[in-house]
Amino acid sequence: MPSTRSSSAPKKQQSGTSPFPRLDAERKTQVCIIGAGPAGLTVHQAMAQIGVTSVVIEARSRQYVQNRVRAGLVEPGTVRILDDLGVGQKLLRDAACHKGLLLQLDDTSARVPFGDITGEPVYMYPQQHIVRDLISASDPQRILFDTEAVNVETGSLDAAVTVNHAGRHFRVKCDFIVGADGAHGASRRSLPDERKKSYERDYGIDWLGILAETAPLADELIYSCSARGFALHSMRGESQSRLYLQVPRGSSPSWTDDRIWQELDYRLSPGAARIRRGDITERTAVKLKAFQLENPQYRRLFLIGDAAHTVPPSAAKGLNLAVEDAACLAQALWAWYQDHERGGLDRYASKAAQRAWLAQMFSAEMTRLLHVLPGDTQFDTKTRTARWQRIVDNPIALRDFADHYVGIARR
Ligand SMILES: Cc1cc2nc3c(=O)[nH]c(=O)nc-3n(C[C@H](O)[C@H](O)[C@H](O)COP(=O)(O)OP(=O)(O)OC[C@H]3O[C@@H](n4cnc5c(N)ncnc54)[C@H](O)[C@@H]3O)c2cc1C
């Protein structure tokens, strides 16, 4: 997306569009965004930069969304988008910049120097900090927390969202609706049946993620696969570790802290120093599933981020795709409000889907490469080893892996 900071004011600005200090009347805005995750907040920030009025409807509280622990690996393309929007300063100051990772298969490991190969690093910066940065940059009256979108209507000329705040319903009329409400939100549900065509893959396992008060055991991420499955060593700053284990579907609640540490030790230790235990302050369980809508647009409703597609977390693409969708849609909306040029809006669906499929492809590859999946046989173990060896030994395969890992392959 070209920098919106230098954009001139839009020609088609609506007059008299009031903010939302009170919730007791029918309101109007130009763009109504459902969901204050990274996707929705990025569009909101971009709209503010170009003088288009937007409002964000968020079902949860501000405190909840600002503290929700999820992703942490930020691609350089995502950083550039956030920085162009004027919200990259803290990230660039505080994030750890990574130029390599360790790929470990049983007791063999190899470093992938993706920074040298591609000329681009990745950044470790928690998703909830991106959310905080975006919220801090916004007009607080334009994000309605504790307010759930319950109905989405879209015609060919206008659109509206009905919301519920503390049991009171009111309607927000708008030109466009941005469905950024994640995998279980109202916007995906509101699509007519004939527009719900989608593609799915369930890998049948979960990730159990923990945040622990212990210094990381290495400076870089370690992706490890052993006969007992996958483990990932990651970090949040110098004193916290973010660690993940592949676990059987639905089994996360039964894992005691002691069992988690033992298993991390077993799966991560061959190539790394022994893991240091610490208090576990947060646990998350994520199903390894992929979902993609055939078409993330219906009339004046545009779906972005997890609302349009979910990827298994194996390649850390969900957050990055969400911000990328948001930037692509924001650019199309900018062209519409600037010049009534609707080519960008018409092309949004196919551009977003094309990029998301590339992320799905790499995420599927990382899932196969690093996990022992239900039903796997020795054949799968052998092909996994062959694939691992090919990435490590062959410069073309290594380059391809690195391009996908840092996100260059989707540009
Ligand atoms: C539990 C979980 C753990 C994850 N862990 C990782 C990880 O460890 N590593 C990784 O790389 N990726 C992870 N991901 C993926 C990554 O975090 C997502 O891809 C990313 O959050 C997508 O951003 P988004 O803005 O599209 O959606 P979200 O961040 O999900 O935001 C959607 C927002 O919409 C709100 N909402 C939903 N319904 C409504 C409604 N009806 N009305 C109003 N608001 C509504 C929600 O409260 C939420 O704030 C995880 C995802 C999940 C769900």
Largest sheet data: 8 strands, mixed
Helix content: 25-40%
CATH class category name of the largest domain: Alpha Beta
Distinct small-molecule ligands in the complex: flavin-adenine dinucleotide
How are strands sequenced across the largest beta sheet?
7-6-15-16-17-14-18-21
Q: Count the DSSP helices.
A: 12
Number of domains: 2
- State mean pLDDT (0 to 100 scale): 92
Q: Which stretches are low in confidence, meaning pLDDT under 50 for 5 or more residues running?
A: 1-19
How far the N terminus sits from the C terminus, by CA atoms, comes to 11 Å
Task: Describe the protein's topology.
Blueprint lengths: L26 E2 L2 E4 L3 H12 L4 E4 L4 H6 L5 E2 L1 H9 L4 H6 L1 E3 L2 E5 L2 E5 L1 H5 L3 E3 L2 H10 L6 E2 L2 E8 L4 E7 L2 E7 L1 E4 L6 H4 L8 E15 L8 E6 L2 E8 L3 E9 L8 H12 L11 E14 L3 E2 L2 E3 L5 E2 L7 H22 L3 H28 L7 H16 L1 H12 L5
Parallel strand pairs: 1-12, 2-3, 2-13, 3-9, 6-15, 13-20
Antiparallel strand pairs: 4-8, 5-8, 6-7, 10-11, 11-12, 14-17, 14-18, 15-16, 16-17, 18-21, 19-20
Bound molecules: flavin-adenine dinucleotide.
